[in-house]
What does this fold into?
Amino acid sequence: MNCRFTDLRHKEVISTCDGARVGFVDDVIVDTKCAKIVSIVIFGRSGFFGLFGKCEDYIIPWEKIELIGEDTVIISCSTPKPTKRCKKPHSNQKF
It folds into this structure.
């Protein structure tokens, strides 16, 4: 089965270990050197009406994905710990 990013986006992510609903796929991380998807990202929820910042994101490695269904993505790990979102480097920064 082939799947586009637009098809993958907004699918619900469920953990098989504890049956928890983790969230919805919002983004993917791609390794540009080998052109492969490394992980999927679920953005953290915003705080109270967006006034108190955002919760941290969930980053789920591609190897932990067991099944991509029509409406859901099943992962084989327990609910992952949230991680801080990396800020994009400014265009004037040197590497």
Notes: The chain has one helix and seven strands.
